[in-house]
Amino acid sequence: MAQDDAAPPGAPAGPGFIGNLMRLVGRSNSLDMTRLADALLSERGEASGVALAGELLSAYASRTTEERIDFLLKLASRFGADRGRLERAIDRYRNDPSAANGVGLHVAAEARRQELFRRLNLAPGGTERLVRMREDVLAAAVVHPELETVDADFQHLFASWFNRGFLSLKHIDWNTEAAVLERIIRYEAVHEITSWDDLRRRIDPDDRRCFAFFHPQLPGEPLIFVEVALARDVPDSIAPLLAADRRPIAPRRASTAVFYSISNCQDGLRGVPLGNFLIKQVVDVLKRELPNLRSFVTLSPVPGFMGWLRRERNARASTWLADEDRRALLAVDQPGWTQVTAQSRALRPVLTAALAEYLLRARDGKGRPIDPVARFHLNNGARLERINWLGDLSDKGMQQAAGFMVNYLYDIAQIERNHEAFAREGRVVAARAVERALRQPPAVH
Amino acid sequence: MAQDDAAPPGAPAGPGFIGNLMRLVGRSNSLDMTRLADALLSERGEASGVALAGELLSAYASRTTEERIDFLLKLASRFGADRGRLERAIDRYRNDPSAANGVGLHVAAEARRQELFRRLNLAPGGTERLVRMREDVLAAAVVHPELETVDADFQHLFASWFNRGFLSLKHIDWNTEAAVLERIIRYEAVHEITSWDDLRRRIDPDDRRCFAFFHPQLPGEPLIFVEVALARDVPDSIAPLLAADRRPIAPRRASTAVFYSISNCQDGLRGVPLGNFLIKQVVDVLKRELPNLRSFVTLSPVPGFMGWLRRERNARASTWLADEDRRALLAVDQPGWTQVTAQSRALRPVLTAALAEYLLRARDGKGRPIDPVARFHLNNGARLERINWLGDLSDKGMQQAAGFMVNYLYDIAQIERNHEAFAREGRVVAARAVERALRQPPAVH
Amino acid sequence: MAQDDAAPPGAPAGPGFIGNLMRLVGRSNSLDMTRLADALLSERGEASGVALAGELLSAYASRTTEERIDFLLKLASRFGADRGRLERAIDRYRNDPSAANGVGLHVAAEARRQELFRRLNLAPGGTERLVRMREDVLAAAVVHPELETVDADFQHLFASWFNRGFLSLKHIDWNTEAAVLERIIRYEAVHEITSWDDLRRRIDPDDRRCFAFFHPQLPGEPLIFVEVALARDVPDSIAPLLAADRRPIAPRRASTAVFYSISNCQDGLRGVPLGNFLIKQVVDVLKRELPNLRSFVTLSPVPGFMGWLRRERNARASTWLADEDRRALLAVDQPGWTQVTAQSRALRPVLTAALAEYLLRARDGKGRPIDPVARFHLNNGARLERINWLGDLSDKGMQQAAGFMVNYLYDIAQIERNHEAFAREGRVVAARAVERALRQPPAVH
Amino acid sequence: MAQDDAAPPGAPAGPGFIGNLMRLVGRSNSLDMTRLADALLSERGEASGVALAGELLSAYASRTTEERIDFLLKLASRFGADRGRLERAIDRYRNDPSAANGVGLHVAAEARRQELFRRLNLAPGGTERLVRMREDVLAAAVVHPELETVDADFQHLFASWFNRGFLSLKHIDWNTEAAVLERIIRYEAVHEITSWDDLRRRIDPDDRRCFAFFHPQLPGEPLIFVEVALARDVPDSIAPLLAADRRPIAPRRASTAVFYSISNCQDGLRGVPLGNFLIKQVVDVLKRELPNLRSFVTLSPVPGFMGWLRRERNARASTWLADEDRRALLAVDQPGWTQVTAQSRALRPVLTAALAEYLLRARDGKGRPIDPVARFHLNNGARLERINWLGDLSDKGMQQAAGFMVNYLYDIAQIERNHEAFAREGRVVAARAVERALRQPPAVH
User: Fold this and answer.
1) Would the ipTM clear 0.95, i.e. be above it?
2) Which domains, from first to last, does chain C contain?
3) Do A and B make contact, counting contact as 3+ CB pairs within 8 angstroms?
């Protein structure tokens, strides 16, 4: 194709170009991916978007970590908004802040990579590969903070694409494909699933349920899932729920649904709200199936408690930790203290008060409760319902939370009010009994 | 709930509020929808988004056209970007045009209704209802141009949500659900489907195919579909393709796939690119199934030809229309001229030259070819392949195009090049024979 | 293959034989099908059953009617039980009527064609092709009564294969594949479906239902279907049910489910009980979905009434027809009598009495009620509930039943008792009002 | 219901009867099941078959083993053919052996329990429960030989119901439901599947396949399955095929499909031919997918070898075992002989000759080869292709077959011929090399 030869470097033409590019890409570095990205955003991308997108994604998948990061950094530096165009749009808007100029400004301010991501999505399997690409961004952003804008664009796009309206809720049970179940085993983040038998105990008995959100473009990949136990009471410890030899109860006789484990599966969807919607829809589904259910609670870990307590104990000054508390707390450093009745008895009041302080009053740098699990449920509008002494005696449970577990209550009638109190005033809505566990009782409110 | 009574008007609290609001909405006007929209964008929306979204959409569906337009106008006037916030973001960016401030500017410039639309999508069936809402916007924008910004936001969002990567291609045949087939009958926009028998002739025989794109959230609604005939030659008229008594050929013996009808089904998705992807994927699918296929062409109408010609004939000056042409063209105003050999013979050269002029050279106010079908295929990278005299003798065909039909050729190897010529230079790529039909031959290029 | 050459004519060996046979079969007559049948029953059939069965079925499908009948006659004459073997089994059984010898006798008495049919079923699509073959048997048996034994074997086999436990009930609605709906249109045997619009009116509105039985091996072929209208009362005429302009009612407000049309679709399954199971399962399904339903009735034609009445009027003696009845009935021969009030008024009592006689007392040669629809519902355990004067004014309704329609009531609590009364004593269980319509009231029972 | 009271014991009437019966059945013994069976065969069964069948099956499921056997014995003693009727049918046939009387005899000779089984199948889940009932029959027949006729009836019926034409072949892989995979683990009868990881290695890699037959009425229950390895050569030992660390090969590069495990899953389907059809269809499926496959072989155990050899060694006289053989074979009784080179070397020729003798010449009481696996493959038309020394060193492999494994070859072109040689003449078709392993070479044939 003679005319190709004559084409200037910046404007290669014809199918030969893509062919050549792909061959190059096979053996070269991120420059080629960048070139493919340019092509995808050009007229060429309009004509051959599906093919070009596929090529770029394949190239990316075949590269070393270093080359990938190189490409991601290019996304940050070269695929932001077009500065000149943005400046002009600002000028137009400042001249005449009309609605049309407002829209024009929004369009001009959009990073070019957003359109790039949308075009990459044209390729078969594109959605999943973009999710994986964002996982790389998140991993690399630790060392390359300039990737944060790329991440922000990903999050913005994924929040739109993984909108709850596009997800489907599926009941996970023993008739689910093994490939999905295997991922459930792998992704379980709260109480490890130790074997297929353990898994079966959690999804197969009549009084156990598991639900997950799926996206049509990632059919075999759960996005988030929750494990539910039907029970007669609000449980205070995890071990009996997971016991191999427990006797199932008839679902019609259960009064309580216990969300005892909720796990996000896709790092690449960080920041996309899923858990809130999942819990509330599962409440709906269960209510319709089992009108006998009266309460919906979690049995939750308190993963940040002991870390915080350690920091408090190490701090010169603590607003609430007395010297005698510090002395009493020495016992908690000795493995096996739960077995020693005297130690356990002595520790209980001080640890309980510490936990109440941690959950109700302690705040991080941004003024939020420190515990991530607490933040999640409180922001969903749940209420901190109960503190359970020695609820989780596993190594992890002891190390993270001195064995404590807590219940959060999802009372649909109160959810809005609770959420607002939390979102507007930063107030933790808790049951009376929990508040009473504080050393200094809270001011009346 | 006593504390509700004390709540200031602008900050109603608790679940009672929504209940009250909904009751109000049942009997009131767009103000209530606006209030629901405000609620949906507030913390309340975070806690009870699914329910609130459902209520707003139901309210909207139950209103009169007038009330709906009222609400849409509110979307334009009250749900744009927050001006103060946008001004601050502009200042920050002008101070320091960092990547982060660029992202911040983009976020601040986003109209609030975009987030509103995303939250409305939380409700079951939300996607479809938003598509219907945009149909209202398009209809109302004719009289209310201020709705154009709302429309722009819809288009931006839908281009992302209805990205080709989220669509699935389905083969429509006699085993398709009647509810979908009925829509195919209804949406067919090129050659009317007159009955279920007519439909069957287009989708059931071995040498006929129909493909449509679907979105997972609108499972029974085709978005766009194309009808294909497998043939031994490039056809020059439509009637034999649709004849009730034709004999099917064996697909393995076909050399040509003819796209003889392509119809967009959803007004609400105007501006979302679908047709280009559909045609190219169908080419792929057919190639894989039938390696014997050598060419992929359309048999297309020329809907704007006679309107343009009328305007030319009425114009004082025409760059190409001679007085004798004007006289000769008088015959075209007489119904039945195709039956009169002498008239037909006399008209053919002048009409053919006019059509070539229309397709190859005439331009609209924006410098684009006037014919919308031509624009579509040329922009997809197809080539104008052949002009067919008396290809469509139906009333519509005679009125719109003096009976002409044309073929556009999809030659995958040339598509990029053709598209670029068209997109960059506005050049219409056509076969030699078509160019020769011009009165003044084109300059060599 | 040298050893094939040496094989005696009666014992051809090896794959070459089948290849040869198939080639022969392509151009020859029923002898070859018979030979294929022999092969299929031999050791060869055990090794290559699927292929041989496919060949025989294809051969059969490609033959003329004459050749097929020839083959079917061979099935009758040459593929019965092996006589010698049967004689020996009888001897053994008469010697020692042990259970084992009973089983041996049963096995020896089985016609060889039964095993042939089972082996033909090995081929893909075999089940459907066997159903079609039996259609040929039924058609040919009219002239060839010796085919009745072949038919008996088919019926025995199909009653086992199409056992209700192997069928699935499907709801037919507007989301059903067009190919199935087209068959519903074609197979409707009671009230003709005149168009797709007519069909839609019967399956799409909320207060209309249609259910069909399917067999897994004939996935696109309904076996039998029933059309149901939900109503507020027991209907007395068909036209309002089928009216194009009627207003649907809310299913939750219906009290009555009306089975107004039930059609067998497969001639080849004659004698296999399907309708009884279909009606009872549909009653179950509707009851569960709509607990508000109180009664389940038919609106049925009386297809044999006028034929019987003609015979009675032509007969010298009738047990119940008085001379004045004969005179009165002359009016019924005049078209349009329903329009003439006087005639209609005069005819009503005598026709009503005649219908009651026909349904309650008249018997055919085997002592059964004459009306086939009556026999079907009565044998199912339904009760003859009501006679409807001028319920069906269509040509067919007038010719077959002088416009009469009847309701049969399916009262689940009475079904067993009714069926037994009918099956054991031949008694027609009817509502009082129907019995009172008899000229001579029935003896008390 | 007063008239019920008057009903004679043998003819209870009305729905009340069934209600009462069911209540009785809840607490009583097999007599009640017998009574339900009588009812199911009566007119009552025609009217309420589905309900009655369900009740009888539930009653059966809830009984003790003893009560069940009692009922099964009743099936043998009381539900055979009606003797009087059979005698009359014999008389009629002897008088006039017409086709119709032949059919009549067949019908009269059918045990009443066959119709009972067909009616039991009306109940939801009936098919599976009947399969389970036959498992009981098979288990009980060991002590109650009179159950053999019941078993014969079951087998006859199941051979018809589980006809290959009604089964569907499914590819079992990692996307199969866990519930089905769990059954694959449980039913594997040849080489134990030790864990889910072991299972995954057999079904997930590209060069491994597993196929099973399913019946539409037992959707979660595989009937039979086969595990296949794609390989480059005919394998001579099992361990490398199952190794955890082996490297998969690309399917397109495989020349050989190895059927290394085939397991029947349902005892209740004993005698129903499944394996033959399964293997041949899998050959078809694989051939179509992978035209590169040249040979289809098994890697099979020889489960009866060592048992037979022990009997030979213990026998006074053996037609082929010389005294020195007996001495040499003493070594085989010492565990670990395979590790001792000298012993192994000494045993190889005598064991190999013994195996050839066992497979090619030894016959059981019915004149058939002794080895069940050999009988299965030879009867399918496979050829004994190779003897593999030390092919299976597992405990089971050593105990059953001194470590031998064999390959059977499925050469489709030879299958008919091989099957006939085996079925008619009892001849074992084997490769030359296997025949040469015989002590006395076979006569030329």
Assistant:
1) no
2) 3-161 (1.20.140.90), 165-298 (3.40.630.180), 305-436 (3.40.630.150)
3) yes
